[in-house]
């Protein structure tokens, strides 16, 4: 099943009903902690960069942000499933769990390129805001349409087992 996304530029992107492969990373020496694996704040950085990439894909660009609009992260949870070692090649994926013109509920996976196994997952909630107005508002129509198209495509995917899990709760 495929759906199209409309970018502000008018370019159509085809989105399949599968988690989107987003970005590639390599674990750098500066990312390693005293235990010999990737430090926790680098996981957050990787997921943050993945989020920025997702928002760009949905049509949010620098001009949009400079005009006072954007998405704010209101909740973020990371589950660490395995260790990342120096030089390890990684990639991220994105699945939209739900969305509306005012919010995005996203699930990201950080995967080992060699095994395709998830090393960490992050569930995040974003609200669309108008900074000057100080509150939540609907995204520009093309962005809202893209969010809804991707949510619709991702409805065909199984819900990730950890979505909605609170800290300390086992997967469903």
The helix-strand sequence is EEEHHEEEEEH
Tally of helical segments = 3
The number of strands is 8
Radius of gyration: 16 Å
Mean pLDDT: 86
Strand proportion, as a percent range, falls in 35-45%
User: Approximately how much helix is present in the residues?
Assistant: 10-25%
Largest sheet: 6 strands, antiparallel
Taking pLDDT < 50 over at least 5 consecutive residues as the criterion, the unreliable ranges are 1-13
* Structural class by secondary-structure content: alpha+beta
Q: So what's the overall shape?
A: globular
- The first-to-last residue Cα distance is 27 Å
Could you please describe the fold and organization of this structure?
There is one protein chain. The chain is of the alpha+beta class and 172 residues long. The protein has three helices and eight strands. Strands 3, 4, 5, 6, 7 and 8 form a six-stranded antiparallel β-sheet that branches. The protein has a two-stranded antiparallel sheet with strand order 1-2. A hairpin with a 4-residue loop joins strand 7 (118-130) and strand 8 (135-136). The longest helix is centred in the first third of the chain and has 18 residues, at 40-57. Mean pLDDT is 86; it is low at 1-13.
């Amino acid at each position: 099943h495929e759906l199209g996304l409309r970018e502000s530029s008018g370019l159509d992107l085809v989105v399949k009903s599968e988690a989107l492969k987003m970005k590639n990373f390599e674990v750098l020496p500066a990312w390693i902690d005293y235990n010999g694996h990737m430090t926790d704040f680098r996981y957050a950085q990787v997921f943050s960069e993945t989020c920025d990439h997702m928002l760009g894909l949905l049509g949010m660009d620098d001009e949009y942000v400079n005009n006072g609009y954007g998405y704010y992260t209101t909740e973020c949870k990371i589950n660490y499933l395995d260790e990342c070692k120096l030089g390890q090649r990684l990639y991220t994926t994105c699945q939209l769990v739900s969305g509306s013109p005012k919010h995005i509920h996203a699930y990201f996976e950080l995967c080992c390129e060699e095994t395709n196994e998830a090393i960490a997952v992050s569930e995040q909630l974003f609200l669309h805001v108008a900074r000057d107005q100080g509150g939540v508002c609907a995204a520009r129509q093309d962005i809202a349409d893209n969010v809804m198209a991707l949510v619709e495509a991702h409805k065909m995917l199984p819900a990730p087992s950890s979505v909605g899990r609170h800290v300390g709760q086992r997967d469903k």
